[in-house]
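To fix ideas, we give here one paired sequence and structure record:
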Amino acid sequence: MPDSNDVRMTLNYILDTSLDRYPDQPAIGMAGETPLTYREFYNRITALAVRLAREGVKKGDHVAILAENSHNWGTAYFAIIRLGAIGVPILPDLPEADVHHILNEMEAPVLFITQRQIEKIYELNKKKLRQIITLDDSEGAPGVVDVITFSTYLEEALVMKEDLEAGVGVCFPEVGEDDLASILYTSGTSGYSKAVMLSHKNLTANAYSAAAMIPIESGAVFLSVLPMSHTYEFTLGFILPLIKGCKIAYAGKSPTPAILQKLCNYEKPKVMFAVPLIMEKIYKKRVLPQIEKSRLLSLLCRFSFGRKFVYRKIGAKLVAFFGGDLELMGIGGAALNPEVEKFLKEAGFPYLIGYGLTESAPILSGGPPGDSTIVVGSAGKPFPGVEIKIVNPDPETGIGEIYGCGPNIMQGYHNDPAATAEVLLEGGWLATGDLGYLDEFGNLHIRGRSKNVIVMSNGENVYPEPIEHKLNAYPWVVEALVVENNGKLDGWIYPDYELIDEQTLGQSRVESREYINSLIADMRREVNEQLSTASRLARIVERREPFIKTATHKIKRYLYNGGVMMP
C-alpha cells in the first residue's frame, strides 16, 4: 500500500494511473453492452468536470447523486471529485422524506438523478438546485422538474473541453488525501441516519489493501449487483477494479435469478460482491430442493464424506450458475447464516466473509484468501492496515465491543460533533457499537449490535442474531426477527408463501392455515431444544409482509423493538 502521506491515496490518482496503464482496455459499462475503455471513461469525466466548473461548481461544494448503478453514475462521481467537490451519493431505496432532508442539509447546487427517483423531488424546495441532470436520459416532468439529459449535457461538455484545450488548457484544483470525497448518509438498523464524512484516503485505503491481497489480473470482469451509493460496493466493486485494470459490468436493477444467470453467462465474471440475502436465497431455492427431492442425496448428506461429495458437485454447479469463471464472491453488509456458510465451505465455493461499517469505508476484517485458519462463522482477520481490539470483554466469553483503527476510519459526522465524539476516540479508534471477540487464530467473531442485546428479567444477556439464524435456516422462512415482549422473547417470521402454496396445492384455506400453524409449532419446539432456558422463544408469530430493511438488507430493528409494530 502507498504511504499514507502520499498523493497516491487520492481517488483522482487512481483514475489517472488507470488511464496510463490500461488506456484501451474495457473499463465500465452495463452488463451485456459494449463498455467504455479507460480512455473514453477518463475523457468523459474530465469533460464533465470542465462543464461543472464553468457552471460554478467549486472545491468543497456538495454535488448529489440519486440514481441506480450505471457507468454514467461513475462518470458523474469522478467528475465531482476531480474538482475537489464532495460527492453525496444517496441510496436509491431511501424514502422521499429522507431524500428531502439530505438535499436540504447538503445544499447541493447540482443533482444527478434517474427516472425511477425523480418523483421524490417533485415537492422539494429547489431554490438551491441550479441543475438537475438525468443519468438515464429521461425527460423529467416539464413544469414540475426541469432537467437536462446526461447525453446532451455530456455532448456539450465535450465540445466545451475541446475549446478550452485549444486555448489555455484545463486546470483543476489540487486535491489531497485528507480532502473530503464523499458524505454518505447511513441507512442503519438503529433509526437515526448520520452523515458520514469520508476523505480520499478513507476510500482508497481499503481498495489498495484489497488490490494487494486479491490476485486478480487486469481485464477480469467484476459484475456489480449492489448499490454504488453504499461504501461496500463503492470501495470493492468500483475503486478496486479500477486499480487492477479490470472491467466493471453493471447488472442494472436487482436482477432475478434467471436474468442474473444470463448476465453471468455473458460476462463471465471473476469477482462479485454480494449481501448474504443473495446467497441465502440461492441456497434455499436451488441447493436444498436438489437434496430434499432425491432420496439418494438426502441419504448421502447424513454422513460427512457423502455430504462433502454432494456439496462439491452442487458447488461446481453454483460456480457454473455465475458464469463458470468466478474466483471470488465477497459476502458482507450483514451476517451470513452459518448453515449457508458451512455449505459454501464444504462445496469449495470461492467466497470470503467481510465485516465493516460505513464509518470505516467500509472494511475492518475479511480474508485473506487461502488462509486455512479462517473459521466458519467468523469475519476473518483484520484487514491489512486495520487494527482491531475488543474493549471491556466479558471475563467468561471474551465478548466485548469491537474497536477499529486505520487510514479508512471516517473524519466524523457532518455538523454533529457530539455524535462524532461518541464514536471517534483517542488514538483514532472507532467504537463500532458491535459486540464480538477474537479467537486464537486472530479471526473476528461478530455477536451483534450492543444496542440489540436483550437483557432478560434474570439479568442474562440474550443475543437475538444467533436465534434468528436458526429460524432463517428453515426453507419456508424468508426472514425472521427476535424481539422482547413483556419480559419474554417472541420470534417473528415472514414465511415463503410461494413455497407454502406449492406444498399446500389443492388444499382449502383452512387446511393451508393449519399447515402453517403446524410448521410454526414444530419450529418453536425444535429451535427451543437448541437454546438455553433464558433464550427460548415464548411465541413464534407469523408476519404477513416483509420487514423494512436497509440498503444491505438488514432489518431496521428500531421499528420493531418491544413488539411495538405488529407482526
User: Anything to note?
Assistant: Confidence is low (pLDDT under 50) at residues 1-5.
